[in-house]
Amino acid sequence: MLTFIGLGLFDEKDISLKGLEAIEQADIVFAEFYTSVLMGATVEKLEKLYGKKVHVLLREEVEQDPHWLDQAQEQDVVFLTGGDTMVSTTHVDLRLRAQDKGITTRLIHGASITSAICGLSGLQNYRFGKASTIPHPYTSSRGVTVISETPYETIKLNKQHNLHTLVFLDIDKEKGYMTVNQALELLLKVEDKRKEGVMNNALAVGIARAGSPGPVVKAGYAQMLRESDFGSPLHILVIPASLHFIEAEALVKLAGAPSSLMEESND
Ligand SMILES: C[S@@+](CC[C@H](N)C(=O)[O-])C[C@H]1O[C@@H](n2cnc3c(N)ncnc32)[C@H](O)[C@@H]1O
C-alpha cells in the first residue's frame, strides 16, 4: 500500500490526525520537498513528532527513477509532500505509476496553498483560470538571459476570460525561493518587451508564509507592490481579473488595497 499524505502549509503540526496515524502505522516513510517546502519545519522536527525516520527523495528519484515504489508492493509505505498531495502533476504521475505496478494507493489530504490564497485574500476560488509558475531566468548557451513569457501569456488569456491567475513562484536549489518582488519585476520586464498592456496598472496580490503565525497579504498596483517588503519565503502571487464587490472590499480591508477599488468593482 502506498499512502500519499499532504502535510499542509507551514510546519510539522499542520498534518491531519489521519495523516499522523498513517505514519505511525507505516513501515517506511518517504518525502519530497522540492515541489513545496514547510518553511517552519526541518526534517528533524518532522521525525521527532512522527517518531519515524523520514527518507527525503531527490527530484530524480520521484520523477525519473522511483525505484522505492517497489517497497509498497509488500509493505506500508507513506509519501509525504507539502500542501495537498495531489496539487502537483508529478504526484498524480507517481500515483498512476504505482497503480500500474498493482500497488494500492490512498490519499490523505492536507491544506493547500491553492485554497489558502482565497482564504487570506478574499478572492473567490471559482474565479481562477489556469495557474502558472514563474521560473528564475536562465542564461542561454549564447550568454543571453532568458525570461519566460509563459506566465505573462497565461495572465493575458485569463484576463480575456475575466479570470484571476494564481502564479506559483520558483523554488530552485541554487537560485533560491523566488519572491513576490522578483516575480513582479520579471512580469514588468516582459510587459516592457511585449507592450500588450497586460501588466499596465495591473492589480496584484502578494502573499507570504500562508499557514504561519504571521502571514503577509498585500494588494496594490504591480509597480508599487514590487517595492513592498514581504519578509521571508514562501511567497505566491495572484494577478486578479476584474473584481466582484465582495472581493474588492476584502482586498481593501484585508490586504491594504487602495479604497478606490471598491468603486470600480462589479456586482
Ligand atoms: C507548486 S506549489 C505546491 C502546491 C502544494 N502541493 C499545495 O497544495 O500547497 C508550490 C508553490 O506554492 C507557493 N507556496 C506553497 N506554500 C506556500 C505558503 N505556505 N505560503 C506562500 N506560498 C506558498 C510557492 O510559490 C511555492 O513555490
Automatic annotation (TrEMBL):
<dbReference type="GO" id="GO:0032259">
    <property type="term" value="P:methylation"/>
</dbReference>
<dbReference type="GO" id="GO:0004164">
    <property type="term" value="F:diphthine synthase activity"/>
</dbReference>
<dbReference type="InterPro" id="IPR004551">
    <property type="entry name" value="Dphthn_synthase"/>
</dbReference>
<comment type="subunit">
    <text>Homodimer.</text>
</comment>
<feature type="binding site">
    <location>
        <position position="235"/>
    </location>
    <ligand>
        <name>S-adenosyl-L-methionine</name>
    </ligand>
</feature>
<protein>
    <recommendedName>
        <fullName>Diphthine synthase</fullName>
        <ecNumber>2.1.1.98</ecNumber>
    </recommendedName>
</protein>
<dbReference type="InterPro" id="IPR014776">
    <property type="entry name" value="4pyrrole_Mease_sub2"/>
</dbReference>
<feature type="domain" description="Tetrapyrrole methylase">
    <location>
        <begin position="1"/>
        <end position="195"/>
    </location>
</feature>
<dbReference type="InterPro" id="IPR035996">
    <property type="entry name" value="4pyrrol_Methylase_sf"/>
</dbReference>
<feature type="binding site">
    <location>
        <position position="87"/>
    </location>
    <ligand>
        <name>S-adenosyl-L-methionine</name>
    </ligand>
</feature>
<feature type="binding site">
    <location>
        <position position="9"/>
    </location>
    <ligand>
        <name>S-adenosyl-L-methionine</name>
    </ligand>
</feature>
<comment type="pathway">
    <text>Protein modification; peptidyl-diphthamide biosynthesis.</text>
</comment>
<comment type="function">
    <text>S-adenosyl-L-methionine-dependent methyltransferase that catalyzes the trimethylation of the amino group of the modified target histidine residue in translation elongation factor 2 (EF-2), to form an intermediate called diphthine. The three successive methylation reactions represent the second step of diphthamide biosynthesis.</text>
</comment>
<feature type="binding site">
    <location>
        <position position="84"/>
    </location>
    <ligand>
        <name>S-adenosyl-L-methionine</name>
    </ligand>
</feature>
<feature type="binding site">
    <location>
        <position position="210"/>
    </location>
    <ligand>
        <name>S-adenosyl-L-methionine</name>
    </ligand>
</feature>
<dbReference type="InterPro" id="IPR000878">
    <property type="entry name" value="4pyrrol_Mease"/>
</dbReference>
<dbReference type="GO" id="GO:0017183">
    <property type="term" value="P:protein histidyl modification to diphthamide"/>
</dbReference>
<feature type="binding site">
    <location>
        <position position="169"/>
    </location>
    <ligand>
        <name>S-adenosyl-L-methionine</name>
    </ligand>
</feature>
<keyword id="KW-0949">S-adenosyl-L-methionine</keyword>
<comment type="similarity">
    <text>Belongs to the diphthine synthase family.</text>
</comment>
<keyword id="KW-0489">Methyltransferase</keyword>
<dbReference type="InterPro" id="IPR014777">
    <property type="entry name" value="4pyrrole_Mease_sub1"/>
</dbReference>
<dbReference type="Pfam" id="PF00590">
    <property type="entry name" value="TP_methylase"/>
</dbReference>
<feature type="binding site">
    <location>
        <begin position="112"/>
        <end position="113"/>
    </location>
    <ligand>
        <name>S-adenosyl-L-methionine</name>
    </ligand>
</feature>
<keyword id="KW-0808">Transferase</keyword>
